[in-house]
Amino acid sequence: MLVMVIGLLVFFAIHLVPLNVNLKNGLVARFGAPGYHIIFGVLSTVGIVLIALGFHKLQLHPGKNPILWEPPIWSRHLALALMLFAMIALVAQFFSSHIHAALKQPMLVAIKTWALAHLLANGDLASLVLFGSFLAFAVYDRIAIKRRGDPGSLSKGSGPWVNDMLVVLLGIALYALVVLYLHELVIGVSPLA
Predict the structure, then answer these.
(1) What sign does the CA torsion over 50, 87, 18, 133 have?
(2) What is the residue-wise DSSP string for 67-134?
(3) In a structure prediction context, what are the per-residue pLDDT tens digits for the chain, which is 193 residues long?
């Protein structure tokens, strides 16, 4: 659990920096924009790797990861449906589209949906800590963005309708790839099992 928690602390600490505009601007002035982005990327990657290693280790040793509740079967079906929406929202982050404009912050919507889906489908302590912390941070991040008046996607425009079709098609393709292959490859458990 310690490795995963350290990874979460590293990941969230580095992601708090952009929420403090003065701190971010000071770091960009000190290291330059490329330097700031490199440091941000490296520390984010370190955090993700530690999270993944810690979570994977806990899944391999059930004695260190107690089951807090047994989720009902329907919650797993709901989680699969929510994940389709999460993948579409994730893809929408990278395209000017009506979906992007409607969600305002599609990456945060994707993270919140992903975390909620996994909280519904899993009842172990490691899942509660991992997905609960991501959900809480994404909610906090959205509130912080709203407070500072960030217009989000509204300043980017909505783009042509063909982008919406592309977002949905790529979201479905990503969802299929994750559900059919990547989840089991990376996590060791098929969501369809």
Answers:
(1) negative
(2) B-----HHHHHHHHHHHHHHHHHHHHTTS-SHHHHHHSSHHHHHHHHHHHHHHHH--BHHHHHHHHHH
(3) 899 999 999 999 999 999 888 999 999 999 999 999 999 999 999 999 999 999 988 888 878 899 999 999 999 999 999 999 999 999 999 999 999 999 999 999 999 999 999 999 999 999 999 999 999 999 999 998 888 876 654 456 688 999 999 999 999 999 999 999 998 888 778 898 8
Closest to 46 measured CA to CA, from 57, 54, 34: 54
Question: Cβ distance 55 to 4 under 8 Å?
Answer: yes
The model's pTM: 0.89
